[in-house]
Amino acid sequence: MGFPAPLPGRRRRASSTSSSMRAVLVLLPLLAAAQALHRGKAYVREKVCQEYKILGKENFRTLTIIDTSRKYSNGTFQEIDHLVRDIVSLVETCCADGADPSCYDAGSTALSEKSCRADSPFPAHPGTAQCCGQQGLERKLCLAALRHPPPALPRFLQPSDRELCHAFRLQPREFADRFLYEYASSYSQAPLPVLLASTGTFLSMVSTCCTSPAPTACFLKEKLERKTISLLTLTSNRICSRFSAYGKDKASFSSLASLAQKVPSASFEDLLPLAEDAAEVASQCCDSMAEDCMQRKLLEHTARVCSALSARDGRFAGCCKGKNLMENHFCILAMPPAPAPRLPEPPEPTNKELCAKEGALHATRFLFELARRHPSLPEAVLAKLFDSSGKLRQECCSSKDPSACWDSKRRRIEAELFPFLAKADQLCGQYHKLPFLEFKKSLRDSLAQAEPSPAQLEQLLEQRASFASSCCLPDAPPLLCASKVSSELGELCQEDSCLLG
Predict the structure, then answer these.
(1) Least crowded by CB within 10 Å, which of 117, 125, 349, 440?
(2) Residue 284 scores a pLDDT above 90
(3) How far apart are CA 460 and CA 466, in angstroms?
(4) Separation between Cα atoms, residue 196 and residue 177, nearest integer Å
(5) Rg of the chain's alpha carbons, rounded to an integer?
């Protein structure tokens, strides 16, 4: 068979699709081994084989490519291919009628031993050595828990229609395998049901249009039909990347700060429920196997945002006037920050308020006020402030003299925090206003005022330009930009301990 069987997708009934999708997490032998803790080895083999027979070899293999590519998103195609072949071979052999009952356990043990070899063909991971120091089930569970961090930016670049059809006609199966690997590893944080639907419709489009007598018209029609699922993949990958990196509370604050910068006229009370709702969508759907969880919840959230903010802000009204809620949501996500409003300085929370039961809420309110007054502050800087505020509250509120601790910290905040925020706000403000070449020229002129050496000037220029082009955007990668913020802070603080470090 040259081309994989169609994945569960838009033309199948939701109930059967969801059933197949829910099976995915127990399909892979290393993941399924976790069940042995409570159910025993016989249960593992029985469950895996049951799902294998329901799905069939081709769908099982396709799901395995997607899931392993998501999990080991930095692995090469060859490494993923090795792992997939071994997993499929193990399940095919051990689920055959008349197979030895010990086949599955012995095979999964051999698979874990192969992972621990110095010349292992499987994806490398820095945690592998520690797992391989364990034995038996503990080793399997440790290996199963390993994941690569998500790529900073999606790597998948869709070829032209002509290139797609050439590759498809040349080697249909390898074309499909490579596409599944590249797409799933690029959007590794998107929920699995979203990836299944997106990859399934893409491969269906290619197989249909590359054999059509009118491929150009076919691709145009199919791409329009895929627009919603494509946007859902991009959007959910972004949402779930932040949720994975931040956790629920910080993800909620990230949404709050973003909304505050886009519509600074809205109050804390207006925006906090919307931000908490966004974090709840991620909490419920990023790991959900329900087929429509992310799309349904995200569209419900978008409707609430549009209802709350369209009358308040013309740009939100413009984004929300479309009939396609997914396009409306994507429009809101891509919306640049609003101009800085003229607002008085926000009152700082008192020492007593910060250490009270609602201390976290008081701190979040102050950070919200900071975000709406400095709309160009990048998300990564605000996320660092959120982290630091929690650490400071924990340190000072548990000290013997909280007031003295806070007074000391406030002096350091004035010395360290405000200059850094001003620089970050100015940098991203210029980046948003100017074409990139003009931005770099303005940045060079600004940096040259400190009279660094030519080599230092070039290094600083490239460092700041890289920060701006990566981290001043609405969809800035959270882990990469957190690292860049820490690097900038380290240089700012030099040898001293950083309040925001």
Answers:
(1) 117
(2) yes
(3) 10
(4) 13
(5) 26
Rounded CA-CA distance 171/167 in Å is 6
CA dist., res. 355 & res. 403, Å (int) = 10
Sign of CA dihedral 288, 293, 297, 299: positive
| 267-282 confidence digits (pLDDT tens) | 999 999 999 999 999 9
C-alpha 68/C-alpha 124 separation (Å) is: 13
Measured between alpha carbons, how far is 322 from 324 in angstroms, rounded to an integer?
6
| Length of the chain counted residue by residue | 501
Where does residue 469 fall: left (phi above 0), alpha (psi -120 to 50 degrees), or beta otherwise? alpha
Cα–Cα distances (Å) from 456 to 146, 254, 469, in that order, read 40, 34, 20
For residue 156, pLDDT over 50 is answered with: yes
Distance CA 369, CA 371 (A): 5
Confidence label for 202 from pLDDT (cuts 50, 70 and 90): very high
Secondary structure letter of residue 265 according to DSSP = T
pLDDT in tens, 238-264: 999 999 999 999 999 999 999 999 999
Q: Following DSSP, what letter does each residue of 250-281 receive, concatenated?
A: HHHHHHHHHHHHH-TTS-HHHHHHHHHHHHHH
